[in-house]
From TrEMBL:
<protein>
    <recommendedName>
        <fullName>NHL repeat containing protein</fullName>
    </recommendedName>
</protein>
<dbReference type="InterPro" id="IPR011042">
    <property type="entry name" value="6-blade_b-propeller_TolB-like"/>
</dbReference>
<dbReference type="GO" id="GO:0008270">
    <property type="term" value="F:zinc ion binding"/>
</dbReference>
<dbReference type="GO" id="GO:0061630">
    <property type="term" value="F:ubiquitin protein ligase activity"/>
</dbReference>
<dbReference type="GO" id="GO:0000209">
    <property type="term" value="P:protein polyubiquitination"/>
</dbReference>
<dbReference type="InterPro" id="IPR050952">
    <property type="entry name" value="TRIM-NHL_E3_ligases"/>
</dbReference>
<dbReference type="GO" id="GO:0043161">
    <property type="term" value="P:proteasome-mediated ubiquitin-dependent protein catabolic process"/>
</dbReference>
Length: 372
């Protein structure tokens, strides 16, 4: 008997994403390991991380390849060098990752320059310089915690910031290398602004961690009902607070992927994943009353119909595999990886539209969620 390939849409246990399409960027200039994706209405943003640039499409592409309307971080859409092949500046990027935009402003986590860049008005031309830099005293600096390796953090410094999020007023930064999340009461309009609060540490100058704190926070998201999710990659878990205000003073209310704060096993020390385990999780996103978690190392997305309020919850559905016990990105390689996910790093939902940075496949997956 000859095996048949899986259906063209991404495999899923429930019909969460019955139709999806692949987008690879420009035909002669495709993505390389994109780690960030964002939707703002019909506008698509992609952090083409491996090539040190951010692409913007004013309308969602409907074909596999499409030329971008704008490119940031490089003087030309075909250029790919770190910091545009020169020194760090207001218009350069080095390993951009997390993105956020409301269609009027744009925030980019410029991770390997140890800074966050902000465009206070929407970019109108390629290579446009940012208006504000956080984490560095000026646009020329790019050392961890300003002073370099070994320098203690403070309320103005950053070290490998991979994730950003805003509710349109406030700003959160996953300051990954400092094992914390920084909070700003307003999106800063001045460079080198001090954070107003810190999540995961008793103060701004500490970097050591306890097991109940974020160990390697890669992304941060705030839900429509005020919940907070932090993808804590190194401990294979997502930290959840019922109210983001409480995160400054208390540990998470629930954990996805682990039974308690001391547990830190990859797939909870199993050889293969299960309905409640995670492996190198890098993102999460609130949707309706539920939560979608990027279970990156298992090459899948886990869906929870209700935001979990207790630890170690069972997922209600998934995208990327046919069952919860499959975790390899190579399970269908004989048919090609176009029919499955391969290390999805970032997800974004706007309305019912879903965008996935399918990093290992060097592409973005676009589709419309169907939740009963």
């Amino acid at each position: 008997m000859t095996s048949q390939p899986p259906p063209a849409s991404l495999l899923n246990l429930a019909p969460l994403l019955p139709d999806s399409r692949v987008f690879r960027g420009a035909l002669g200039n495709p993505f390389l390991a994109p780690r960030g994706v964002w939707l703002a209405g019909r506008t698509l943003f992609v952090a083409d991380t491996g090539q040190n640039r951010v692409f913007i499409w004013h309308r969602l592409p409907e074909t596999e390849f499409a030329e971008p309307d704008l490119v940031l971080g490089q003087p030309d859409s075909a250029d790919t060098g770190r910091n545009a092949g020169g020194s760090t500046g207001a218009s350069t990027l080095q390993y951009p990752s997390g993105l956020w935009s409301d269609g009027e402003r744009l925030v980019v986590a410029d991770a390997w320059n140890h800074r966050v860049l902000i465009w206070l008005s929407f970019p109108t031309c390629s290579g446009q310089p940012a208006d504000v830099v956080l984490g560095q005293p000026d646009f020329n600096g790019n050392q961890p915690n300003v002073g370099g390796i070994g320098t203690a953090p403070n309320a103005q410094s950053l070290n490998w910031p991979y994730g950003v999020f805003s509710d349109g007023e406030r700003l959160w930064i996953a300051d990954t290398g400092n094992r914390r999340v920084l909070f700003y009461e307003q999106i800063p309009t001045q460079s080198f602004a001090r954070a107003d609060g810190v999540i995961g540490k008793p103060g701004f100058t500490e970097r050591d961690y306890e097991n109940h704190e974020p160990v390697w926070p890669y992304s941060v998201r705030v839900g429509p009902d005020g919940q907070l999710a932090i993808a804590d990659t190194q401990y294979y878990r997502t930290l959840l607070w019922n109210d983001w205000h409480s995160a400054f003073t208390q540990p998470a209310d629930a954990l996805v992927g682990q039974p308690d704060f001391d547990a830190n096993g990859q797939n909870q020390f199993r050889l293969s994943p299960e309905q409640h385990t995670l492996n190198w999780t890098y993102d999460a996103f609130f949707y309706r009353k539920g939560l979608l978690v990027a279970d990156t190392g298992n090459s899948r997305l886990l869906w929870f119909e209700r935001v979990p309020r207790a630890s170690n919850p069972l997922a209600d559905g998934l995208i990327g595999h046919a069952n919860f016990q499959t975790g390899s990105e190579n399970v269908n390689t004989r048919f090609g990886t176009d029919r499955q996910l391969y290390w999805p790093f970032s997800i974004c939902i706007d309305g019912d539209r879903l965008a996935i940075a399918d990093t290992g496949n060097h592409r973005v997956v676009l589709g419309r969620l169907v939740i009963s």
